[in-house]
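Protocol step 4 of 5: obtain the predicted structure for the target chain.
Materials: sequence only (see below). No template structures provided, no constraints applied. The aim of this step is simply to have a reference model before the mutagenesis design in step 5. Sequence pasted as it appears in the construct record:
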Amino acid sequence: MDSLPPIPTPPRLILRELRIRLVPVVFFLCVVAAVFYLWRTHVHPITVVGQVETNTAQVISVQDGTLTELTVDLLDRVCKGQVIGRVAVTDPELAQAALEAIAWDLRVTKARMDLDKVRNLDSYSRLRLDLLTEQTALALAQIRVRQAEAEYQRAQELYKQGLIPAGVGAAPGAALGVEVAERDRNMLREEIAHRTKTIAQLEAELQLLELVGATNVSTRDPVIEEAIRAHQEQLTLQTSPQKLKAPIDGVVSAVLKRPGEKVIRGMPVVTITPLTSERIVAHIRQPLGRLPTTNDLVRIRTRGSPRQTATAPILKVGTQLEPIDPYLLSPDGTRHELGLPLLVSIPPGLKLRPGEYVDLFIEFSNK
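Step 4 output (structure tokens):
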């Protein structure tokens, strides 16, 4: 019996068989590949969590006072050095009273100094009178010594002629001898030397009193007036409104005091948050395995959409476990863990805001 030719299979049946046998396998492989891709890129187990560092700055008052002016509000942008408020340090009336009290204290001091000057002036007058008296006595002594010199020379000539004795004659009313004339001359010379020395001392004391101003007693003292002006300037600076300046560029994140409220020295008035940050504060969760070093890199992945990734170096690694922010671990913030802290640099081009949460993956080097 002759063999019959094979019956041709319709293309539709061939496609149907292919669909039944191959499509499930291809679909399964695609699903496995998708799961693998998602696991590698999105569902990788998170062992390092971090937050972009937020370096807030506090604007504080350095003295007690009243906040009289505040020119910024919440979420306003400020520049470094910008004046954002003023604090009145002291009540003007109280400052004026303090200034008057200081002025009166200085005037009382001046009155006491004037009293001392009057005493010095009295001493100066007495010394001046003593000086004039000594100078007059010295002039008289100089005249007498010239007379005594002449008398001594005359006595020597008479003694040589034998007309007078050497000393005092024995008879009553006898003439004085040459020794008496010499004695009188020497006594006058000693008196002149003594008075000359006394006059020099009096002149030195008078010059000293003149240097200290004993002869100048005025109703106004320039030193006291200058001290009063210095205290006035000091009180003016202390009582003038204190300017509050922004220490950094950023955004006002909190306003803690309003105009009219009292502020205490060291109390924050405004909180400013910077616009950008340069570091990420991360924590390695437990259990700890291989610990990273500054030679390793970190792959940063943001949690927002669209997700950003970048690689950055590790700057510092901590030495002890510290508490992790609960909101980094779970949305409700109920989980509490300890982790090893480390600082990570933010690479250029990665747009992160201060306070933003990120996930990190350590890429260990072979060194």
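Step 4 remarks: Residues 138 and 192 are 6 Å apart (CA to CA). Residues 60-89+240-270 form a domain with the OB fold (Dihydrolipoamide Acetyltransferase, E2P) fold (CATH 2.40.50.100).
Proceed to step 5.
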